């Protein structure tokens, strides 16, 4: 307790508690396993992973991962039948920052998809890593 009462230590203790809580909530939500842009590239190249962009149409049209299918997160639960043929493949979901795609991972996991991955940091991290972007509609 003495550690927490000292000057700024209470702020660090609060930050640690909040951070731990967010990690716990994310893992309990079943948001899929997070993958970095480099890990996603390996899954795409080595295991023919399917990429699904769950952003809205305008965001998708502005630029997306190569060969990404577009299914907005709000439509995903209704459209899981379209993905049945990919049930045995790794599926990488992405949005702008990784938040919406975490929800999308949860939807697919509940629908029985076992190899669901969330692109950590979303397309923003993908672009920051210097990875290619496409504007072609799939």
UniProtKB/TrEMBL annotation:
Pfam families attached to this UniProt entry: Rhodanese
InterPro entries: GlpE_sulfurtransferase, Rhodanese-like_dom, Rhodanese-like_dom_sf
Domain Rhodanese span(s) in chain numbering: 45-135
GO-annotated molecular function: transferase activity
Key words, A-Z: Transferase
Matches recorded under PANTHER family: FAD-DEPENDENT OXIDOREDUCTASE (PTHR43031), RHODANESE-RELATED SULFURTRANSFERASES (PTHR43031:SF18)
Protein name: Sulfurtransferase
Protein source organism: Zoogloea ramigera
């Amino acid at each position: 307790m003495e550690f927490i009462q000292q000057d700024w230590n209470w702020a660090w203790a609060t930050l640690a508690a909040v951070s731990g809580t967010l990690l716990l909530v994310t893992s309990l939500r079943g948001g899929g396993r997070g993958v970095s842009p480099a890990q996603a590239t390996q899954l795409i190249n080595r295991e023919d992973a399917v990429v699904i962009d769950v952003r809205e149409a305008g965001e998708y049209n502005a630029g997306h991962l190569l060969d990404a299918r577009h299914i907005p997160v709000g439509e995903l639960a209704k459209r899981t039948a379209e993905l049945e043929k990919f049930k045995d493949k790794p599926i990488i979901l992405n949005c702008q920052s990784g938040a919406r795609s975490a929800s999308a991972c949860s939807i697919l996991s509940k629908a029985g998809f076992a190899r669901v991955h969330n692109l950590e940091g979303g397309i923003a991290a993908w672009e920051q890593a210097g990875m290619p972007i496409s504007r072609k509609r799939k």
